[in-house]
Structures are given as C-alpha cells and as structure tokens.
Automatic annotation (TrEMBL), chain A:
Ranges for domain DNA replication complex GINS protein PSF3 N-terminal: 9-58
Protein name in the entry: DNA replication complex GINS protein PSF3
Subcellular localization: Nucleus
Top-rank taxon, per record: Eukaryota
CC annotations in GO: GINS complex
Location, primary (coarse class): nucleus
UniProtKB/TrEMBL annotation, chain B:
Family that this chain belongs to: Belongs to the GINS1/PSF1 family.
Main localization category: nucleus
Coiled coil: none
GINS subunit domain boundaries: 71-132
Domain of life: Eukaryota
Protein name (database record): GINS complex subunit 1
GO cellular component, one term: GINS complex
The keyword Zinc appears for this protein: no
Classification of source organism: Eukaryota, Viridiplantae, Chlorophyta, core chlorophytes, Trebouxiophyceae
Keywords, ordered alphabetically: DNA replication, Nucleus
Length: 217, 211
C-alpha cells in the first residue's frame, strides 16, 4: 500500500519498507507460520503472536485489523530522553537508516502524536549542525564521524547543503567565459581592458580629484 | 521472509554508482517470478475453498479468519514483488537513458551487462535520439555534446578591422570597422580568435582604451 504522495518507483521508500516493526498478529495466519516468524514451531501462525513484520506488510494487515502495530524501540521513551539530552550526538543511523521515512509511514497507521513530536524534536535538534557542517566542514576524520551518525534522509540533506555551497563558490570565484581576441600577433588587442561601470566611475573620480583647481570639500 | 529476493535486486541497483550498471540478474528475477507464482497458487487454493463453502467472502472471512489473513498476506506479497520487479526494470532503463546522455563510451561499455530486451531498448532509444538530432528530421544539432547549454546561441560582435564581405553558413556579413553584428556563436568564435571582431560584453560592462 502506498501512502499519500509516495512514488511507486521510489527506491528509498522501497528500502525503508524493509524496516522491521514489532506487531501482534491478532488473527492466526494459516500455512505461513515459519515464513512470517522463523521461531514458529507449527505450520500455522497462532493468534496473538508477537513478532517483527516488515513495514510494507503492516498497512494491509492493520487495515483489516489482523495486526496491532507497536512502535519500535528507537521511537520509544528512552530515545526521547536521549534526543532531549542532545539530538545531534545521537547515532540514528545505527538505530534505523530511514528514521524519518519509517516514522512518517508508521504515523499513518498508529496515529500517535508522540511519534510526530519525537521525530520533529530529532530533526530540529540535528538540522542546524547538519547544515552548518555541510557548508563549512572539510573532508577529514571529524566529517567522517559526523556522516556515520546521519540517517539516509539526513545524508541527502547534507549532500545538498555541500553541493549548494560548492555551487555558490564556483559562481563567486568564476572568471568570465567571454571569448577573447588574441594577445599576440598582428591583430592583438594590446592595451585593452574590460572595466565595469563602478570601476570606470572610480577612475573618473580620481581624474577629477587630480585636476588643478578642483578641490573637493 | 517474503520479498527478500526482490529486495536483493533493488539493493544491487541502489549500491551501484550512477555511472555504472550491474549485470542483469536473470536468475534472481526468475526466482522472484517463481515466488509470485507460488503465492498465486496458494491464493487460488484458498479462493477455491471459499467458493466450495458457498458463502460470500465477508461471511467466509468471519468464519475462517486464519485463511482470510493468509489470503491478505499472499496478496500483499504479490503486490510487493510486482512493485520491486517493476522498479528494478525502470531504474535500469533510466540508467541506460542517462548514460547515453552523459557518456557515449559508457553507453557502449555497458552493453554486456544488459539483457536482450534492454539491448533492444537501448538501440531503439539511440535511433530515436539520432533521428531527433538529425537536420532533416529533428533539431539539426547533436544535443548529447554539451550537457550544459550555452547561455545564448547568438553573440553580438563589433568589427575591429575592415574585412569586406564575409560569407558564413548563417549568411553574408559586410564587416566594416566599428560596425556591430549579431551572428551565431560558433561562427563568431573563429573571427574573434583571429582578432577581426570582438565580442561585446554585457550591458553593464564597458570597453575602453587604457591610456
């Protein structure tokens, strides 16, 4: 099942869908015990079994009340306290590579305001440092350490920030791409200068100030 | 768990750099299709048992919740595998197209990595693009040469030396000293480099003799 605005062919969304989420299967499932739960002894999965299901299977099962979805540990109270203490220090990548995408998809199922608040707090706490480092940090051990903590969404944001800064620098320090005439040879443009209006104005002001009898107050 | 093989296909694409394309994994695609067929067979068995009971689907679902849950899971797995296979094919087609634009040599070097259908697609795309770039049937310029288009295809120039009448592909110009002309950039470039004309700078920039 696709959530609103999700692209059918989005590779990131597909990979995020593989995240394992704890759930309780309310109704048993015939013939799929070992396939859904490797620890299941029988052929059928009994009712009220708690197991980890992939994210992509949950919307269908939750819509038919076949499963009760629970929040994974990385959206729990302990994580909330850690994020309050210092969101930018937390290694979210090792907890869940698609932390925000999974939270968004889960929110459509569980409808818990606490989940929204937690992900918002995590993003707000990490965004400023993320963008500052993307604009200023040079490649090195510190940057590698920072990147190792970022989720997939944050890594994309970081790359976009770094690309915007490099594009700005390219624009800021770029030289003119105008085609120039020859500097040597019979048709050489010796003594030619390309000056902008402000530069010409400066030259005119200097000439005025050097002119005898023209004293500026 | 279901859908694991298809995710391997997507991982192959996701872990590959944009300039490369992994070899088409025929074996894994075949296994995924087999898995889909297996789901379909099991679904058919469940539907047959439902039909045999003579109840409508809602009643049958209430009486046999375990079978109904299995039906839902099988159907979700089929849809999931379908999505992953279609994404695999689409991502590869997009890579083939983008490599044609970014590098001609790369487009040829990936040929051994493609399946027979993809080779057919690549050749058809090449033909279509060539036709579009050709003068008679399309725009008349090779669009794959420059990935960043020039800001303006035409250039304003001022003549520095009398050259008389000059015949260029775009037309005939009478180049008299200090006259200004607008001509195609690629034609003006040679004259500028020879020093016969000079490119006029942007409006806010003036040229003057340095005294």
């Amino acid at each position: 099942m696709l959530s609103d605005g999700q692209d059918f062919y989005d590779v990131t969304a597909i990979l995020a869908g593989e995240t394992q989420v704890p759930a309780v299967v309310r109704k048993g499932v015939k013939g799929l015990g070992p396939a859904l739960d490797p620890s299941c002894a029988g052929r059928d999965l009994p009712a009220n079994t708690q197991l980890d299901l992939p994210m992509w299977l949950l919307p269908t099962m939750a819509a038919r009340t076949s499963a009760h979805v629970m929040l994974p540990r990385f959206y729990g109270e302990k994580m909330r306290r850690k994020l309050q203490a210092g969101a930018h220090c937390e290694d979210l990548r090792s907890r869940c590579l698609y932390f925000y995408d999974v939270a968004e998809a889960l929110n459509d199922i569980v409808h818990q305001p606490a989940l929204e608040q937690l992900t918002m707090m995590a993003f707000q706490g990490r965004y400023r440092e993320l963008l500052t480092k993307a604009h200023t940090a040079a490649e090195g051990p510190a940057l590698t350490k920072l990147k190792a903590k970022l989720t997939a969404e944050e890594t994309n944001l970081f790359a976009a920030g770094a690309a915007s800064m490099s594009a700005f620098e390219r624009y800021r320090y770029s030289t003119s791409t105008a085609i120039r005439g020859p500097r040597i040879g019979p048709n050489a443009q010796k003594g030619r200068l390309a000056l902008t209006r402000p530069a010409l104005q400066d030259i005119a002001n200097q000439a005025d100030s050097r002119r005898p009898g023209n004293v500026r107050k | 768990m279901f859908g694991k093989r298809a995710v391997e296909l997507i991982n192959e694409i996701a872990n590959c750099t944009p300039e490369n394309l992994p070899a088409y994994n025929d074996e894994l695609v075949r296994l995924v299709i087999e898995e889909v067929n297996e789901h379909y067979n099991q679904m058919s068995d469940l539907v047959r048992s439902m039909n045999r009971s003579g109840q409508d689907s809602a009643e049958w679902g209430m009486e046999h919740p375990e079978e109904a849950s299995a039906l839902v899971v099988h159907h979700a797995c089929i849809l999931r595998n379908k999505r992953l296979l279609m994404t695999y094919v689409k991502e590869r087609a997009e890579r083939i197209k983008s490599l044609k634009w970014s590098s001609r040599t790369a487009a040829m070097s990936i040929r051994p990595q493609l399946s027979a259908t993809e080779v057919e697609f690549q050749q058809a795309y090449d033909r279509l693009l060539t036709k579009y770039c050709r003068k008679g049937t399309g725009v008349g310029m090779d669009l794959t040469l420059d990935t960043t288009p020039p800001s303006d295809p035409e250039l304003s120039v001022r003549v520095r030396k009398d050259c008389g009448e000059v015949v260029l592909p775009s037309g005939t110009f009478f180049l008299k000293k200090n006259t200004c002309h607008i001509m195609p950039r690629e034609e003006a470039e040679g004259l500028i480099r020879d020093g016969y004309v000079e490119a006029l700078e942007h409006d806010n920039c003036l040229l003057r003799w340095d005294t």
